[in-house]
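Re: that chain you flagged

S.,

Sorry for the slow reply, it's been a week of failed gels. I finally had a moment to sit down with the sequence you sent. For the record, here it is as I used it:
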Amino acid sequence: MTTGKQTSADAGRKTRLRAAVALGALVALAAVVLHVDSADAYLWIKSLHIIAVISWMAGLFYLPRLFIYHTDAAPGSEKSETFKVMEQRLIKVIMNPAMMISWVLGLYLAWSAFGFSGGWLHAKIGLVVLMTVTHVYFSRSARRFARDQNTRSARHWRLMNEVPTLLMIAIVVLVVVKPLS
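Prediction finished late last night. Pasting the structure tokens below so you have them in one place:
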């Protein structure tokens, strides 16, 4: 099997290095902000939380699309192997770090700004737990694809592609409108 420029081991190392630098910069910025005794710290933490959530959501939207196309690729084919690399890099380099940062900063904001109170906040956290369950399901599915053991149809992945969207809509409404105050 030939390896493309973007799926080679060298490209993977460069991608991991760039992701590590970006993640390190984000963590360093978060550490600085957490040690700033200022009213602005809340806005910086909130901004970093939103950036992490956007990154996490991008991965949750894109991964099932990759699964749809991967389902049509013959197991062991060059196309299938390319999808395996893309899926693993998306999960390890973008989705997992973004999810962890979203959780840490989100819980910090829930505690510092709201004292973990409010029905809307409890509902939001519940939906974020469901988003995390979806993330875990997608990660396990990527491992099945990596072993050429996918048993799901492209239709299944099209339907699963809607789950993060529906959860995101509900979460945004809860955060902005706060209907269960």
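What I noticed first: The two ends are 58 Å apart (CA to CA).

Talk soon,
D.
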